[in-house]
Amino acid sequence: MDLGLTGRTAIVCASTSGLGEATARALAAEGARVVVCGRRAERAAEIAAELPEAVGVGVDLTAPDGPDTLVAAATEAFGSIDVIVLNSGGPPPSRAASIDAEAITEALVPLLLAQQRLVAAVLPGMRERGWGRILGIGSAGTVEPIPGLALSNVGRAALAGYLKTLAGEVASDGVTVNLLLPGRIATARTTGIDAYIAEREGTTAADVEARAQAEIPAGRYGTAAEFGGVATFLCSQAASYVTGTATRCDGGLVGGL
Length: 257
What we know:
- It is a single chain.
- By secondary structure, the chain is α/β, with parallel strands linked by helices.
- It has one domain (9-183, 222-248): NAD(P)-binding Rossmann-like Domain (Rossmann fold).
- The chain is built from eight helices and seven strands.
- Strand 2 (33-38), helix 2 (41-49) and strand 3 (54-58) form a beta-alpha-beta unit.
- The chain starts with 8 loop residues before the first strand and ends in an 8-residue tail after the last strand.
C-alpha cells in the first residue's frame, strides 16, 4: 500500500527515544521528511543522520518559545509542515490523593500546553493547503485510568478532550486529528513504571512485568516498532477518512471497546 507520505514533512516531538523515535523511523521509511527533536540535541542529530531525509533539532518544548523554535527550524529545513506527532515524556508516578494544584499545573505544561502551542503554529498552513495530519500520542489511561499515574491520567485526558474537539472543527479542511494510545510497550518509560510498582509492592520488576504480561491478551509487551507502524498509518493519505478517534495499540489490554 502506498501511504502517500513521500515528500511530506513530519515533525515528531520527543523523538530521541522510545515511541517518538520509533514513529520517526517508521515515517522516514515511508518517504517522509522527518524533523527529529528533543532536549538532547546531539542524539536528535544522530538519529536524523540515520534517516534518508531528516534534520535533528535540540529544543525544550516546555519553554515558552520552544514550540515556535521547533516549527521555525522545521520550516527552514523543509518548508511547510504536513504532519505533526504530539508526544512528550510522562510525569512521575503519583497517587491522586497526594497531588496538589502545583503538581497538576506542572504536568499540564508538557502534556497539554506545549502541544496546543505546536498545533496553533502549524494548523493555519495545513488548513490553507487542505491537507494535514495531527496525531497525539496519549496513553491507555485516557480510557481506563492507570493506578499510580494520577498526573498522567489527568494531563492526557485533557489533551484527548482538546484534540477531539479540534477534530470536528478542522475535518472539512482536510486535516485529521487523532489519538494513538499505547498500552504496555517495551520502552524505558514502561521499565521505570514497573520499577516503581515493584518498589511500592515490595516485589521485583521482573515479577511486575510477568504479572502485567499475563493480563495482556497478546501475552507480551508490544514493541516500539509495532507502535510506530500504527502511528504512520494514521498520519498517512490512506487514513484520510479517520479523524476524531482514539486508537489503542495495547495487545487487547483495555477491556472496553
